[in-house]
Design brief:
The chain is an alpha+beta fold and 150 residues long. It has 2 helices and 5 strands, in the order ααβββββ. It has a 5-stranded antiparallel β-sheet, covered by helices on one side. 13% of the residues are buried.
Amino acid sequence: MKKITTHSKSSLFLMEMILSILILALTCTACIRIFAAAKTQRKEARELNHIQELVTSAGETLEGWDGQLSSFTRIFGQPSKTSGALLQYFYDNNWNTCPENSAVYTMTIQPAASETEKTADINFYNSEQNNLYQLSVSFPFVSERTVSDE
């Protein structure tokens, strides 16, 4: 008579467990990479939102500007640093104005005016001096009109 031996199923169970752990580890790795990329994209979106807000404000100031540098700074705000017609504004991580030595972001505005046009070059830099945003804006000078009574 033949002797029947039964093999233990523990080796099959062990293989299934190893495979399950491997799949779980790969899934966790993918999730961690996705969350890290989302954090980076959130930071970049936050930067761009603040930059857009400040550039819009500078553009609106330029539109109503009379061509005098002192009136531009009176309307837009006093710069942290001035070098000729170049105005520099420094911001910290929370986008509050701060001194140059603790700045994370720097906005430079170089307004100029001629008889027919008002222009400004606006640049944003981070603390590593990487250019984050650049925009040139121009508006025509609108002559003063007198309203006649009809």
